Amino acid sequence: MERDPRAWQDPLARPVTFLPGVGPRRARALESLGIRSIGDLLYHYPFRYEDLRLRRPGEWEDGRRVAVEGTVAGKPRVSRGGRVPVVAVPMDVQGIRIHAVWFRQAYVLERLTRYRRWRLAGRWQAARRSLVVEHMEPVSEGGAGHSVHAGRIVPVYQTSGDLRPKWLRTWIASALKEAEPHLVDPLPWRWRAKLGLMDKAEALREIHFPRDWERLGRARERLVYEECLRFQLPLQCARWRQKSRRAPALRLTRREWEEFLAALPFSPTEGQRRVLRAVAAEIAGHAPMRRLILGDVGSGKTVIAAAALFAAAMSGGQGVLLAPTEILAEQHARTLSGWFAGFSFPVWLLTGGTDRAERTRCFADISAGRPGILVGTHAVLGHVPYSALRVAVCDEQQRFGVVQRMALLRPNESIHLLSMSATPIPRTLAMALFGDVDVSFLPARPETPGRRVTRWLPLEREEEVVLELRQRLSRGERAYVVAPAIGRPGEQPESKKDVLSLFDWFREQLAGFAVGLLHGRMSPGEKERVMRAFAEGAIQALVATTVVEVGVDVPEATMMVIYHAERFGLSQLHQLRGRIGRSGQDAVCFVLTGPLTDIARQRIEAFQAVNDGYLLAKKDLELRGPGDWAGLAQSGWPDFALFDPIRDEIWMRRAKHHAHHLVRSREFWLLPEFASLREGLAVSGEGIH
Ligand code: ADP
Ligand code: MG
């Protein structure tokens, strides 16, 4: 029963301004989160949930957030004890008398006289029998009504600028109502039934406003499975077509390989040599290489890429290296130019910053078939007139979506392809995820002369950090300071959580040193400029959000300070720590924490004790609660919003199996019930990792 696709597409494509309460200003703020349409709102999943279901008085914990429903039982009073007005009102909650208290919110007085029955959420202070209210909502007479902010499991969304979390909840609730009647499930129902999966509309509703943890879990599985399937389908298509290709065999002499090794400023480790041998053997054959190198941050993957590119150029062809950011592209170009300075082939760099004349010259060389290595970002690599492309390398592969990676192969599918990633995933999952490629694991390099220690201090002892910072900066070393949030300009900082107020503070503390600022709300151009200044030493201490995670190598960086480390995922912390001490010096990573829950304490302990990305990712999962996940989205995988490599391996395996059979079946290509899953599959490409 195929419906007109527009019938379900249209309501989802409507702009957010269609919703009550969203004007042009808020629409712009939403846009900075990548949200333009009703559909985008539906796919803006919570990253956390808060259990604010109504509890009996006996279950309230001192100092914790609770949600209650009660009746106003007296006159509200305003006092001005200190400088702030305090509103207090007695309330009856399930036969218990408490005081609801508001600070600085005199306007609630008027609201309290209008309604009698309220649903409140706030912190319970047992000794005073008072609830410090953070959220209030009147309860309509004759029923609990449908609440989105309290009295339920409440979704918590990533927000931006001055978008209040509460608004997002309200808008997403209306978006759901708007879209639900029009949602057509892309998975045929028979198939869903067989796998025991929820239907799409229900899954979307439950992922945002779960009725209980169990349903949330099932909703998540349903959406994860679809993500996996949509990820696998193009891969399996590509794999199906791959069989018949023949790539140029790149055979280098022993002498040439020795020259390559001699050109390196270091001697490769045994692990690197093993992978180098595998790559050299593979590109010497006619079967196109499709290989993924997985190795922790700092394990030394660049040298593997360099070998494949070297082979392309030395055998008279061209190689291309794709990097996720301009600065990383520049860095690779610099490294490779240095290593290959003694050879006759050039290393070209192409980024958004390359001027026209330069680009024209480069294109002329490339289309004339001149051997060499091209390094660039995906924005510019689409238009290159390759004439002798033999090897493509995709660095930080997880940062590129499937489609972007496919574009690398569009000029010529019969080439050797190497990808590199630092995603901490187990071997078995790597096979399932990247079913169309061979995977090499590069072990972490044994720590060379320098040491990297992790020191954990409470926030109150930040003076010690400043001391150490000053010492290191005056020795010419560089440092990162990372905060969990951006903050708002001109606003009173709540504590050391936001990068803007931290930047101001450090500028004072580090007077005489060059302090820079980097965060996600800056334009890509600005970010690149700051990052470059830091890499070159014009900035000595960089105060930043986690945008610094991407694998830029600043060998002089020897210190990392992470504020409110309890607010980061373990994998994220590990990525951050990997940014320092990259050239063997003594390096130190400070984690500063505020008040900690038990779980948070265990996480930080694990971080201090373990220095292996994969083990940390597993630990992170063990310690996470039922509605608490970060998934890959937060580490920048454009293909996934929910999929978590550690938690969801089984779904990826299933999806791979299903995709494999689907693309080989006539029904899939013919039946209307698969129309949505078929979308976009016509793109050509193969083995796109
Ligand atoms: P990755 O890309 O895997 O994070 P890189 O290739 O950028 O790691 O290497 C990290 C740093 O270690 C670089 O400064 C590099 O020059 C250095 N390095 C890599 N391999 C070795 C080695 N075998 N001996 C000494 N230093 C190395
Ligand atoms: Mg790298």
UniProtKB/TrEMBL annotation:
Protein name as catalogued: Probable DNA 3'-5' helicase RecG
SUPFAM superfamilies: Nucleic acid-binding proteins (SSF50249), P-loop containing nucleoside triphosphate hydrolases (SSF52540)
All copies of domain Helicase ATP-binding, residue ranges: 282-442
Pfam families from the UniProt entry: DEAD, Helicase_C, RecG_dom3_C, RecG_wedge
PROSITE patterns to which the protein is assigned, alphabetical: HELICASE_ATP_BIND_1, HELICASE_CTER
InterPro entries the UniProt entry points to: DEAD/DEAH_box_helicase_dom, Helicase_ATP-bd, Helicase_C-like, NA-bd_OB-fold, P-loop_NTPase, RecG/Mfd, RecG_dom3_C, RecG_wedge
One term of GO molecular function: DNA binding
Record flagged with keyword DNA damage: yes
Keyword terms: ATP-binding, DNA damage, DNA repair, DNA-binding, Helicase, Hydrolase, Nucleotide-binding
Cell wall biogenesis/degradation recorded as keyword: no
Gene3D superfamilies per record: 5' to 3' exonuclease, C-terminal subdomain, Nucleic acid-binding proteins, P-loop containing nucleotide triphosphate hydrolases
Highest taxon, organism lineage: Bacteria
Gene Ontology biological process terms from the UniProt entry: DNA repair
Residue ranges of domain Helicase C-terminal in the record: 461-622
Organism expressing this protein natively: Kyrpidia tusciae (strain DSM 2912 / NBRC 15312 / T2) (Bacillus tusciae)
Xref: PANTHER family: ATP-DEPENDENT DNA HELICASE HOMOLOG RECG, CHLOROPLASTIC
